[in-house]
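Could you help me review a protein record that somebody else here produced? This is what I was given.
***
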Amino acid sequence: MDNIAGSKSSLSWAVNVSVLALVLLWLFPTVGLFVSSFRTADQISASGWWKALFPTEQTVQVRTGGREAAVQDGDLFVVTGNLLTDEGGPGADAEIVAFGVSSRAIGAYQVGETAEFSDGEETLALAEDGSYRYTSVEEPGRRGQRVFLTAVTAPEFTTDNYRTILFSGTGQDNMANAFFNTLTVTIPATIIPIVVAAFAAYALAWMDFPGRALLIALVVALLVVPLQLALIPLLRLHLGIGIGKGYLGVWLAHTGFGLPLAIYLLRNYMVGLPRDIIENAKVDGATDFQIFTKIILPLSFPALASFAIFQFLWTWNDLLVAKVFLIDATGSTTVMTNQIVELLGTRGGNWEILATAAFVSIAVPLVVFFAMQRYLVRGLLAGSVK
């Protein structure tokens, strides 16, 4: 009786667990990027994003006051201040656990102890509130004494990362400008291939003409051709006919690279539509254009939405095609992927910048995907069942 149609499979729990695992695998990195985008560089280096709501222990390097802050007291030069609140300190809310004056022993001393070093010629006393007293037989250097603080800091969230990403640079060099440049590239590069592919798919699915089977085979063959082979020849063609590097060139490049998949998906979907509907429309005197616009297109919306998701995600996250067909000397057409590379290149490997830039970059694709994901499976399964 377990195999009767309509009965629930005993392995349904395994399917549910597998789906839940896949959802979590995709969800965790996104949540991690979102949380990390609001954390400081020190907190990111000290603990994972899952500990963002808890106090963390981190070691920071600070310096005492230098020559200008020194006051001579007899034979000693004395410098006082507060390592928690001075420049580079972890803040007044931090709790000092240990400190050191050498990178080889960063936690050699406890709070309240006096560190003696340089053969006793220098001392450093540190209190719980971060106040210190540094003494030296010789006049201190301009930068002061280096101190390693191991402190427990409270959770801290900031929007400075977003201000850096969105408003760093001036004019054409900030991420906000790159965001609108990316929209300028992505929207036409998604709409144009859909329009062209829809007409071609209808012709290959419902119109009889010589060479149709050969064209279908050619479309399938183009699916396996790597776009890297066509980049330089296509760029030389653009330069030869006067298109050059610009929005028009990148729109045409994305259209050409996206058409094979678009035609393949739409043709498979359209060929599976009921033949009676098309034949009845022709009997009633409808032209191919009327059938296409009033019958085929409304019924093919799941397939159109499915390809739109793929094309939008591909063009939004693209860097290679933009590098070849779009980037210019002024940077006025720089897209987000290239701007992220530039930001990381000028600031080193700052993880807080990387996390924030990555989340800003994926925010729009996430909205598009969740808005249209219900059509994705229906479009991908097009033509598989008659």
Q: What stands out?
A: The first strand starts at residue 56 and ends at 63. The longest helix spans residues 175-206.
